Amino acid sequence: MRLVRDGTPASPGIVIGPAYVLRWEIPRVPHGNVPAKEVEREIERFHQAREWAKRRIREIQRQTAQRLGSVEAKIFDPQILMLDDVDLIDGTVAYIRENHLSAARGFELRMLEFESEWRRAGHPMVMDRLNDLMDVELRVVRRLLGLPDPDLDLRGNGEKVILVARDLTPTLTVQLDRRAVLGIATDAGTRTSHSAILARALNLPAVVSLGDFSEQVRTGELMILDGRTGRVIAGPAEQEQAVYRERDVKVREWEQELLLLAHLDSVTPDRQPVTLRANIDLPTEADSARVHGAQGIGLFRTEFLVVGRSSMPEEEEQYRAYRQVAEVFPHHAVFIRTFDLGGDKFPLFLHMPPEENPFLGWRAIRVSLDLTDLFRTQLRAVLRASAHGDVRIMLPLINEVDEVRRTRKLLEEEEERLRAQGIAFNPGYKLGVMIETPAAVLIAPELAKYADFFSLGTNDLVQYTLAVDRGNARLARLYTPFHPSVVQLLHQTAEAGRAAGIEVSVCGELAANPLGVFLLLGLGITALSVGPASLTEVKKIIRSVPATDAREAVAEALQASTPAEVTAMLARGISRWLDLSLFSGRWNLSPVD
Ligand code: PEP
Ligand code: MG
């Protein structure tokens, strides 16, 4: 039976092969008590299983560090910390001692309590961490029940498979063997969940957030997975397979062709230069950005340093991470965005109370300005990194001038302390703001008096302008950057930046969308920042489309009254220069639509 599902594209690539449905689930723990005289022995067994699990995770962590790098390996820190958590240990021991439960049962009950507490917190980022909890539970429970080590070995099955699962835990993902696994399809997960990050690092095509797909497909059933568009098809027709095979060849050729662009200038045919930088989430991605021709980093998201951690990151660790990226780009700017916590990203150590509307709540600069210890440490680390390159500080979700003023004051105090300690930094560093709310756009001329640059965060700007949640799949049709209101706000920001003589760049997803690039060029925005995988595609557009043409089309689009009109005008304009069918992304869902 043919089944088509559209999920979230998490790692690019097209693969066709048999499904392997993996039930990576915690085994059923039998009921039953232990006799009083065996209670202490049961407690001892629990500690032994815990120690064994820690050793095993450390081993996987070491292998991960060798295969993928030390930052990726840190993903396992929370699991090790969990196994030493006093609440977890004491709670389990109490169950065993007071209720005479078996070690497996006592541990299972304590873990269930943890899980329900975390679920009640309800933050998507905490939900991502439930995977870590599951990994730990699975390992310890299996050990206590005398079951074999749960680690997966798909080698030896012969045929390569597409792994289908409800969700993938981090330890499982890193152990996947490229020689045995073609791709990954999961019911749950987000682009930022650990397994998605690891899939990208492993170059494994992946689609996540597929609903109940793993219930619908059987092991051995043929399927197609397109990690560029987020589509999976179980039981595809012969002809459909042929279409995707052909598309795969075309896409690979196209990618080869694009790679040749990496070191060509980013300039339009009518000689308008466009600065093309990269967005990264981890320091190790800076190399890939450089290889793909980035002229610096336009958005370095720093949340990897805090999310999923049980303690605040030290200044030294942060400094090393920022410096590492600055040194990859000795001749270009690196925009380090200060922590954008809240919304969908929360570190465990903040014990954040649940909020009704997290995206309208305690988020980004609001958190940083309240938690000044956390913020000062980060600012010091960035200042120190500024001694190693053109490091710029970028503030997320700025809504008013006072937030910039207060940050500047903190920076001045930290500069003073660094000077007193004789620690080097660049006193001429730049401080700028992200424009992510309509409020920021409307006061952009005021903000420009305090900021050295603007960077448009269109992912948030669209959601806050249209009152449409950026992560709500049901509203995806309404979440459009081509709504005339958004186009007007982009235009106003560009004008305010021009009037003040400061750079206006765009680091939201719009900058990686072909129609978006055309729109931004037409608005006179000449600095874009996109994910490393999109750099060459965007450069292809820049090198194909004359800026004068874009300006003409956009002058017309600025008069449009509906998103459909805006999109049609832009598509008409750009299609004179480019065939859009090969570009990746959601505006081009599938070759068989
Ligand atoms: C944005 O909002 O456009 C942006 C780049 O920031 P983030 O996606 O991290 O919120
Ligand atoms: Mg944002």
Task: Give the helices and strands, then pairings.
Blueprint: E1 3-6, E2 8-11, E3 14-22, H1 39-67, H2 70-73, H3 77-83, H4 86-99, H5 103-121, H6 124-144, E4 161-165, H7 170-175, E5 181-186, H8 194-201, E6 206-208, H9 213-216, E7 222-226, E8 231-234, H10 238-259, E9 275-280, H11 285-291, E10 297-300, H12 315-328, E11 333-337, H13 365-370, H14 372-385, E12 390-395, H15 401-421, E13 430-435, H16 438-442, H17 444-447, E14 453-456, H18 458-466, H19 484-500, E15 503-506, H20 514-522, E16 527-530, H21 535-544, H22 547-557, H23 563-575
Parallel strand pairs: 3-4, 4-5, 5-6, 9-10, 9-16, 10-11, 11-12, 12-13, 13-14, 14-15
Antiparallel strand pairs: 1-8, 2-6, 3-7, 7-8
The structure holds phosphoenolpyruvate (PEP) and magnesium ion.
Residues 299, 301, 340, 436, 457-460, 507-508 line the site of phosphoenolpyruvate.
Model description:
With 593 residues, the protein is α/β, with parallel strands linked by helices. The protein folds into 3 domains: 3-24 and 150-237, Glucose Oxidase, domain 1 (3-Layer(bba) Sandwich), CATH 3.50.30; 36-144, Enzyme I, Chain A, domain 2, CATH 1.10.274; 265-582, Phosphoenolpyruvate-binding domains (TIM Barrel). 46% of the residues lie in helices and 13% in strands. The protein has 23 helices and 16 strands. It has helices spanning 39-67, 70-73, 77-83, 86-99, 103-121, 124-144, 170-175, 194-201, 213-216, 238-259, 285-291, 315-328, 365-370, 372-385, 401-421, 438-442, 444-447, 458-466, 484-500, 514-522, 535-544, 547-557, 563-575, and strands at residues 3-6, 8-11, 14-22, 161-165, 181-186, 206-208, 222-226, 231-234, 275-280, 297-300, 333-337, 390-395, 430-435, 453-456, 503-506, 527-530. The strands form 2 sheets. It has an 8-stranded mixed sheet with strand order 1-8-7-3-4-5-6-2. A hairpin with a 4-residue loop joins strand 7 and strand 8. Helix 3 crosses helix 6. The longest helix has 29 residues, at 39-67. The chain is globular and about 85 Å long. Residues 586-593 have low confidence and may be disordered. The structure holds phosphoenolpyruvate and magnesium ion. Residues 299, 301, 340, 436, 457-460, 507-508 line the site of phosphoenolpyruvate. Phosphoenolpyruvate (PEP) binds next to helix 18.
